[in-house]
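Can't paste images in this forum, so I'm doing it all in text. The chain is below; anyone willing to post the predicted C-alpha cells underneath?
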Amino acid sequence: MSKGEPIALCQRYRIMAKNLTINWGETDKAPEARKRWLGSWLVSGEGEEGDNFYDGPGGGETTHDVPAEAIGVRLRWWPPSNQVELNLEFGPLPTLTEDFFFSTTHEQTVTVAAMDLVR
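Text version of the structure:
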C-alpha cells in the first residue's frame, strides 16, 4: 500500500474493524528474553498517532476495541531486559515495525501477529 493510499481509502470507505487482536509472539521465550512493546493507533494516512493501546511484554495475545478514528496501528519494540543494546546517552532505543492499516472489508475483528511486522 503506498503512503497516500490509506488517506484515499479512509475518504471513500468507513473502516469497519471493531476489535483488534494482537499476538505479541515469543511465547517460547522466557519472560526476560521477550521484547517490550508499545502499540499506538494510527489516525491518519500520514502516520499521525492517536492514543497508545498497549504497553507491555511479548509472550501473549491481547484484544482491544478499535476507536472510530483509527485507521491502523504502529508498533514499537525495545530489546528484552536480558539483552544489552544500550545507547549511552539515551538508554535502549525503540525500533519501529511496519505500519499496519486496516482493510475496508467488513471484518469485525482484525488479527495481527506483531512479529510479522518486524522489519
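The two ends are 16 Å apart (CA to CA). The beta strands are 19-23, 36-42, 49-57, 61-65, 72-78, 95-96, 100-101, 109-113.
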